[in-house]
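Friendly challenge for the regulars: who can give me the structure tokens for this chain first? No prize, just bragging rights.
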Amino acid sequence: MGKSKQPAYVTAKHEDQSGFLSGHKPMLVVVISWIVTRSIALYAIFQTWHPVSGWSADVGLYNFWAGNMNNGQFPLNDETWQYPPLAAVVFLLGFAISHASVGFITLAVLADAGILALLLLAQKRLATTKSQGLWIWVAAPALMGPIMLGRFDVFPTLALIAAIVFASRAEAFGSLVAIGALLKVWPVLALIGTPRKDGIRSIIVFAATFIGGSAILVAWWPDSFGFLSGQRARGLQIESLGAWPYMMWNSMGHHVNVALQYGAIEVVAQGTQTVCLLVTIACVAALGALAVLRFMGRLEHATVAHIALTAVLLSMVTSRVLSPQYTVWILGLLAVTAFEPPRYFKAITVLLCTSAFAGNLLYPGYYIAFEVGDKFAMFIQTVRVMTLLAATLLSFISLLQRPASIAKTKVSPAKTQGKTKRQGQSRKALQKAS
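First reply, four minutes later:
Bragging rights claimed.
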């Protein structure tokens, strides 16, 4: 007996469902992988058989500040407070969820999920099948360690990724960058990547949002921007690129003094003030050069994400501070840049992922050893900062080079006129021959 034919609507429905599942399978794999990696990171933070306090040690400090702020006592003259005032709102929200570390870490996981959602949205809006950026973000805890969820830096990263995803709307871009800058100063660097056609409008919206937000926060906490004086007084953190010669000297058996200052271990030695001045000048010069190139229209071929990534990398290699949690900035920007990758992107990715993993090994596992001059710890730090420096230079070079597709389509007027003239002469010769 022959097989009865299925009704058309049944077949259509089956094919529709099959297409839906096959089309969404890559996204489901990404989401499931994200859940798995975050579950492992959370287990590593909260497990008790071999606790590693360094991954979430700062959460206790966040809760200490939040508890005091609940009682009307703000962190005045506290050199460990190095945040713009909107950060206090995040700490208070985490403290409201739970007085233990689970409250803040819950918020961090939500911010992390928000970044993944933004990356999925960026992929959809660009109508691309490229998923490298998604996998970079999924792998972030494996690369930089569970410290990603035990520090504050995932929140300004969320604001900046949102700004880049919505960069085509000047109002959204400007306001989101301002929110990021009120959480932590560095997202303001994304303004260098503002599309030129909307540059003035984006900057006006940024300024209005930042000033308005600051006014509200100052009304709540009058000395909320007092942390800026502490930023000026900070020295040379032992992990920074500027401190690398001192720490190398330390690892060769020559004692170099270090001390806990402004919430970080800093080099206390002759010449550090000069080094701090030089790296600050280098930072201003590098970012200034990038801004001038953008203003002159030399970076029109580059994406906002690539320019922002390069700006942040330049600021990091010329910074007096290079804490391991800063890696989350890089990985977030690297992930969103991957949807429209520039030249040398694979090499830049390998270098930055290597730097991230070296930072994961260094802190907290080898941090004390590094401080006292252990050679293997110094090797890890050398890999970390040198791959970061190499990636920064490569990213900057790739900004200056137009993609091959653009270069090929650019034909000079002289060549075009010559070609047209030759074609005209050939047509006349054919007409005479006929």
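Strands lie at 258-261, 264-267. Residues 8-46 form the longest helix (39 residues). Your move, everyone else.
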